[in-house]
Amino acid sequence: xxxxxxxxxxxxxxxxxxxxxxxxxxxxxxxxxxxxxxxxxxxxxxxxxxxxxxxxxxxxxxxxxxxxxxxxxxxxxxxxxxxxxxxxxxxxxxxxxxxxxxxxxxxxxxxxxxxxxxxxxxxxxxxxxxxxxxxxxxxxxxxxxxxxxxxxxxxxxxxxxxxxxxxxxxxxxxxxxxxxxxxxxxxxxxxxxxxxxxxxxxxxxxxxxxxxxxxxxxxxxxxxxxxxxxxxxxxxxxxxxxxxxxxxxxxxxxxxxxxxxxxxxxxxxxxxxxxxxxxxxx
Length: 282
What we know:
alpha/beta, two-stranded antiparallel sheet, globular, SIR2-like protein
């Protein structure tokens, strides 16, 4: 189709009635521009990369947050932050096909649970400005678990915690952080425990966004929904959802139960195949 699902819902995405939500699978076609190597997105390869190319124990490698916690305890938090900063250097990677299409559609609100800078890089060149929200964890001082930035003309300016977007300014919400405008990531179990606690307490979502997101429909792309942390994040980030669709090739019982609880219809399809030009008439 290519991207027929997005084309079919283009108007709803442009209007903000349907909010795209991006998971790891969205980055499956991203390649190192020099070596052609795929960006590690699954917990196993990602944990191996974090561990300097050495496979980690299965009980750690099954979830990246566990692997990150293990490395943090052994080598310090800075080791994990350095790894993610280097891994997600924007100039290192090709552009995800889905990112390009979303940049063309210019959704007013986009929720991206990945740690890469792909959408930020595209929005920097395709929009005059955008409003960036990034998650914070385990930070002393702030009363909230987010930071706000106004990005325009290639530069991002930090904003106070009560700032709001200008009229018509698109919103990009990256709860797990990104390398731009300065490296900031949620990675370890400890990060997510802190962030989820404050998310459930209402302190990880800006006040202006809480009423705006009520009654929205969501389009979940690149998720398998078999990870407890991922489902807990989405449960609160999608609070007030009126329904939507989750594209999952082989949904598990956990995924089906989660989608039923949030009123999401499951489209059983492989995301990469769905985005391939060869399936245009499918």
